[in-house]
Automatic annotation (TrEMBL):
Gene3D superfamilies: MetI-like. InterPro entries: MetI-like, MetI-like_sf. The chain crosses the membrane at residues 57-78, 90-114, 120-139, 173-196, 216-237. It is a multi-pass membrane protein. It is found in: Cell membrane. Keywords: Cell membrane, Membrane, Transmembrane, Transmembrane helix, Transport. This is ABC transporter permease.
């Protein structure tokens, strides 16, 4: 276990030391605060970040991911069951990723105001694609030989779906979900930057207007940690759900 994490931990430590030395030499904390200054800022404003702004961002992430999972899996199942739906929705899924989300965020603020839903929509647009596409690819990857075997054994379409298609799609679903959870944090932060009254992205932007470099980086650190924790949570559920699959 120690050997497994020694090399990445050493690399992170070296980068932090270089960052600390560079920031100390520049002595321009409003542009590049040192890691120690960021830690001091986190200690100073940690209460308000953890009790007010982190819950606001986490709520956006949870709602956005829930909507993306429901509609993403639903669209994937629908496209897998109908070639017409595949030809209809798949190009729309691709084209939805060609539009810069940061350009659409102000429009959502005009539509939904500074409510939570303007941020949720941004999060859904970012996280919906990897879940839908990966799940769809997983459903299509089911073995044709096994399908024919189940048909010869008298299995119904429902039984084939749950006993063959779903197990085949689960690894792909979790792969898409691992991408989506990290993107969800980015989506929430983008939405809060454009227009919000609370949240880690909002607080970072507010600190930027005050030329407080450490205050800008402090909520970014929490956003990064939130993304890592969500990723590890998905990995945990993946291992629990896919015990039948041999993994290292």
């Amino acid at each position: 276990m120690i050997k497994k994490y020694f090399t990445p931990s050493l690399l992170v430590l070296i980068l932090l030391v270089i960052w600390q030395i560079t920031a100390s030499m520049m002595n321009m904390a409003f542009i590049l605060p040192s890691p120690l200054q960021i830690v001091e800022k986190l200690w100073e404003i940690g209460d308000i970040l953890l009790t007010v702004h982190l819950p606001a961002t986490l709520l956006i992430v949870v709602i956005g991911l829930f909507i993306s999972i429901v509609f993403g899996v639903g669209i994937a199942v629908w496209m897998n069951g109908s070639k017409t739906m595949e030809r209809t929705f798949y190009p729309l899924l691709i084209s939805s990723q060609t539009i810069p989300i940061i350009a659409l965020a102000p429009i959502f603020v005009l539509w939904f105001g500074y409510s939570i839903w303007s941020k949720v929509v941004v999060t859904v647009l970012i996280t919906f694609f990897p879940i839908a596409v990966n799940t769809f690819d997983g459903l299509r990857s089911s073995s044709k030989e096994l399908r024919e075997l189940l048909l010869t054994m008298g299995a119904s379409k429902k039984e084939i779906f749950f006993k063959l298609n779903v197990p085949s799609a689960l690894p792909h679903f979790f792969s898409g979900l691992k991408v989506a959870v990290t993107l969800s944090v980015i989506g929430a932060a983008i939405g809060e930057w454009v227009g919000a009254q609370s949240g880690l992205g909002y607080f970072s932007r507010r600190m930027m207007t005050q030329f407080d470099g450490a205050g800008v980086f402090a909520p970014i650190v929490l956003l990064s940690l939130l993304g890592i924790l969500l990723f590890l949570l998905v990995v945990y559920f993946e291992k629990k759900s896919l015990r039948w699959r041999k993994t290292e």
